[in-house]
Fold this protein.
Amino acid sequence: MFSTPDSTFNTLFAGLGATALAIKVGDRPKDDGGDKDDDDEDNKRRVRSLQRRFLSVFWMMRMADWLQGPYFFEVYASK
């Protein structure tokens, strides 16, 4: 069926890409003619809320990791 491993990989990769593209195109939201402005504003507000919650926790974790950096240096230097 396939002559080389490269052609097998390329064929399977192209098939997977085509499948992903077909799923992505088929999964588009349908325009029902409703009031889109209210939905967009609501989505923007919800995304902003999620970003604020996520980024506050994310930066607290980053700073906590940064604060323990000097202690890990001692561990790595001793090995």
User: Anything to note?
Assistant: The first helix runs from residue 5 to 26. The CA atoms of residues 48 and 54 lie 10 Å apart. The mean pLDDT is 84. The helical segments are 5-26, 36-67, 69-77.
